[in-house]
């Protein structure tokens, strides 16, 4: 490719300061270094994790920064030592990587790669501690190793999953984070038995995908819990059978759920990021066998408090990143689930905007409207 080995000038949406609208700037994107790839992003979408770190209220502020981690694109060029990706490959970036060599990558049970595990405070590449983005020589920081709000981005090869080139990138881009996370939290981690009852806290994209996963696993009652009543109608399409709005009750939601389910739900999946919802999600599972799974990203000072008796009574608390999927090994198979129509992603995509209007996607999320908004890069 004509651009390989050269700096590419392209457009990126830069967050100069916490909470201020992104501004589209011309950035310089350096060529990929050893074990890195440069990817032309075609579609990206906004996930709540981007918004949390952009607001930086309960998180470490790292600015100026290029956010974005849910996306689909095509490899433009590869750095030294990259053998399993080549220019032209269709890929999904992932915020947490898979080096394939560490103890975690070798364990069938973990996706918490030692080398490439999600690190939200790091704004540089792990190879040399530098950023590949700059404006007039001034570095612009990366976000979770992906920074997809740019026409081109540089990623470690371990944070890039190669997928079926026939899969439409404008649809499967949402599998790069939120949808796979929720789906995996249910099917890989909560593992609801057939006929069981599952409570899902938070009916955003991740929670709806958790509902979908619970449905696919064969749960017969799926109870959605959300403070936003507008979410409820939508959730039915994802297998949700009942709804609870904690605001409609004058007792703790754990008690409401216990009454509805003869003592507690069999499984719960928390997809809010709210510490109270995390505690409720744990305390609402049935003693003896209940399993709760935390997925939401908490405030950095949040503390989980519950009485130890809740554990002694044989309840299990788990947490997961990226639904326990190994990004490079498993994500291509999630894409195949879509290709085989076992998983419908279209119903998660409610809005679409051109890159120049990326701030509209932030407004929609702030208003709690829709599920996923696809941002179309305009190369
Ligand atoms: P979202 O904002 O679209 O959805 C969150 C929903 O939770 C909203 O509908 C909101 O009304 C609801 N909610 C908030 N507080 C609540 C409470 N106390 N009780 C009940 N409902 C409540 O967000 P999303 O994109 O679906 O992401 C959900 C969470 O998952 C976020 O915290 C995000 O950062 C996290 N996440 C985690 C991973 C992971 O790998 N662990 C990956 C992606 C996203
Ligand atoms: Zn690893």
UniProtKB/TrEMBL annotation:
Source organism superkingdom: Eukaryota
Co-factor(s): Zn(2+)
CDD domains, per the entry: alcohol_DH_plants
Cell compartments where the protein resides: Cytoplasm
Main localization of the protein described in the UniProt heading: cytoplasm
Residue ranges of domain Alcohol dehydrogenase-like C-terminal in the record: 205-337
Gene3D superfamilies referenced in this protein's UniProt entry, alphabetically: Medium-chain alcohol dehydrogenases, catalytic domain (3.90.180.10), NAD(P)-binding Rossmann-like Domain (3.40.50.720)
GO biological process, one term: formaldehyde catabolic process
Residues annotated as domain Alcohol dehydrogenase-like N-terminal: 35-163
Keywords, sorted A to Z: Cytoplasm, Metal-binding, NAD, Oxidoreductase, Zinc
Keyword Metal-binding applies: yes
GO MF terms held by the record: alcohol dehydrogenase (NAD+) activity; S-(hydroxymethyl)glutathione dehydrogenase [NAD(P)+] activity; zinc ion binding
EC number per UniProt: 1.1.1.1
Catalytic activity line of the entry: a secondary alcohol + NAD(+) = a ketone + NADH + H(+); a primary alcohol + NAD(+) = an aldehyde + NADH + H(+)
One Pfam family here: ADH_N
Transmembrane segments: none
Family designation: Belongs to the zinc-containing alcohol dehydrogenase family.
Subunit text: Homodimer.
Protein's UniProt name: Alcohol dehydrogenase 1
Organism of provenance: Eragrostis curvula
């Amino acid at each position: 490719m004509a651009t390989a080995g050269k700096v590419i000038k392209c457009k990126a949406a830069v967050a100069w300061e916490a909470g201020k609208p992104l501004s589209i700037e011309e950035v310089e994107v350096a060529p990929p270094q050893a074990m890195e790839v440069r990817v032309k992003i075609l579609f990206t979408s906004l996930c709540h994790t981007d918004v949390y770190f952009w607001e930086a209220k309960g998180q470490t502020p790292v600015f100026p920064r290029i956010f974005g981690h849910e996306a689909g694109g095509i490899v433009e060029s590869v750095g030294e030592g990259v053998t399993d990706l080549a220019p032209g490959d269709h890929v999904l970036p992932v915020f947490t990587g898979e080096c394939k060599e560490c103890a975690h990558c070798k364990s069938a049970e973990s996706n918490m790669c030692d080398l490439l595990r999600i690190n939200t405070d790091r704004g540089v590449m792990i190879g040399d501690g530098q950023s590949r983005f700059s404006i007039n020589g001034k570095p612009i920081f990366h976000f979770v190793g992906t920074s997809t709000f740019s026409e081109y981005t540089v990623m470690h090869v371990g944070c890039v999953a190669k997928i079926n080139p026939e899969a439409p990138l404008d649809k499967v881009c949402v599998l790069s984070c939120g949808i796979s996370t929720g789906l995996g939290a249910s099917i890989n981690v909560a593992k609801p038995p057939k006929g069981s009852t599952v409570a899902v806290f938070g009916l955003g994209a991740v929670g709806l995908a958790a509902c979908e996963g619970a449905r696919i696993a064969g749960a017969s009652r799926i109870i959605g819990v959300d403070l936003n009543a507008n979410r409820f109608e939508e959730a039915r399409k994802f297998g949700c059978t009942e709804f609870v709005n904690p605001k409609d009750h004058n007792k703790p939601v754990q008690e409401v759920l216990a009454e509805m389910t003869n003592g507690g739900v069999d499984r719960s999946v928390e997809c809010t990021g709210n510490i109270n919802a995390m505690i409720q999600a744990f305390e609402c599972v049935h003693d003896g066998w209940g399993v709760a799974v935390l997925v939401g990203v908490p405030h950095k000072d949040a503390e989980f408090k519950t009485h130890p008796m809740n554990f002694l009574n044989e309840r299990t608390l788990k947490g997961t990143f990226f639904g326990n999927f190994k990004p490079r090994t498993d994500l291509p198979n999630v894409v195949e689930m879509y290709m085989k129509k076992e998983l419908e992603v279209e119903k998660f995509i409610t809005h679409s905007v051109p890159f120049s209007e990326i701030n509209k996607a932030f407004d929609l999320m702030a208003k709690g409207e829709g599920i996923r908004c696809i941002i179309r890069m305009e190369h």
